[in-house]
Every structure is written in C-alpha cells, then in structure tokens.
Amino acid sequence: MRGRTAVVTGSTSGIGKGITRALAEAGTNVMLNGFGDTGEIEAQRADIEARFGIKANYHGADMTKPAEIRDLIAEAEGQFGQVDILVNNAGIQHTDEIEDFPDERWDEVIAINLSSSFHTTKAAINGMKQRGWGRIINIASVHGLVASVQKVAYIAAKHGLIGMTKVTALEAAGTGVTCNAICPGWVKTPLVMAQIQARADQDGISTDQATINLLREKQPSGQFTTIEQLGATAVFLCSDAASNMSGATMTLDGAWSAQ
Known about the structure:
Layout: E1 5-8, H1 14-25, E2 29-33, H2 38-52, E3 56-59, H3 66-80, E4 85-88, H4 103-131, E5 134-139, H5 152-172, E6 177-184, H6 190-203, H7 207-218, H8 227-237, E7 249-252
Parallel strand pairs: 1-2, 1-4, 2-3, 4-5, 5-6, 6-7
Helix pairs in contact: 1-8, 3-4, 4-5, 6-7
C-alpha cells in the first residue's frame, strides 16, 4: 500500500487514531482530522511520519460543515496528489429518551455520524472511479444492525450509514472502487468510557463493575473489541484479498448481533 493516501475522519483519538496508525504502518500516507489540543495533534502527526516513514498531514475540518469537508478532501488531493482510501470514522453520542432528546443534539449526531460521510464520499469518489481504484470504509456500529434504548439519533445514523454503504457499493461496482462498513461492538474508547463512568455514577458502583455489567448485557464474549483489531480489519479491506468485497458489513462485536 506504499504510495497510497488515506483520509481518516475523527482520527485524533480512539478508533480513528488506531486505524490511521495501522494504515501508516502498511505504508499509506495519511491525512488526519479531528478535534483536540493542537500540540498533541502535531505530536501525533510527527510521530506517525517518523515512525512509519510516510507523509502525514492534518486538517481540522468540522464534520458538521459541508464546505469544510469538501476542503478536507481537496487539500488532501492537493498535498498528496490523490485520495485512494477514505475512512469515515467521525462520530459523537448523546443518550436520552426520544421525548427528552434535544433537537440540536439530534441534528448534530446525524450531521457528524451520517451526513459527513455523504459529503466526504461525494467529494472523493469521482477521482477514485477515474483512477480505477479506491477504498471507502464506513465505521458504522453494531448499532447499525440492532437497537438499544436512549440512542435514537446514533442508531438512526448508523443504520443510515450501512444503507449508504450498500448504495455506494452498487454505484461503484465494476470501477475498482469498493465500499464496506465495519461494525464494532463495545470498544474501549473515550466515548465508551464516558458512558461507563456515567453508569457507574448513576448506579453508585465502581467503574470496573460498570464495565463488567456493560459487557455482560450486550457482548457475549465479555471482551472489548480492540482498536488494533479494527485497524487490521481496515488494512485488510484495502488489500487485494478484499478487492471483490463491497457492500459488506463486517461485525467485530463478540457475538452481540448474533443474539
């Protein structure tokens, strides 16, 4: 994969950060994107570049703003020559019963978790088709396949992202461009750890017990999916072995969706 270029949204922390490192280790130049401390982001960028001998840049596009998203793709094409791999990973969460769910939080979750992937794909896919090679990877969720309470916006967005994956795969069929979705279950990310802490505070229990309870309720393996496993899956989807895999949903959920 050396010489390829990947744009990974939401890649300054969590799953996106892990996928970026896995792609860089495989030889791919990377465009980072996300929020965070500018010094920490620069340290991350420089470390990836030095450690893996690739080129790494950063663009701070706000994933709620289509114009900034288009500029992200345009800048990646300008700096690296082209965008070969697009990983739509940016995401946020908010939990509430439907009747209490704030309108502005619905709009924000849908914008970042779903609409941003449309805007990135729209901006990048034509170039991929023209070159006869491209990989679009949508980081969906087991919640794109099954539902849970108090997550109406997140689940609507992730179900929508899987639908978008299938449409993209059909429209790109025969062009050398594939589109697939990765559907993790529980992954130990800052987003999930915040949910665990909230449960611990609400129930008056330790975070260790809240973690056990969370996994026991949903994920029969009793183990978190790791960021390294997700990174390796993304690299596989970019490989020749996956060249005829498109429109697929790959679950890494410890048998959650098998129930």
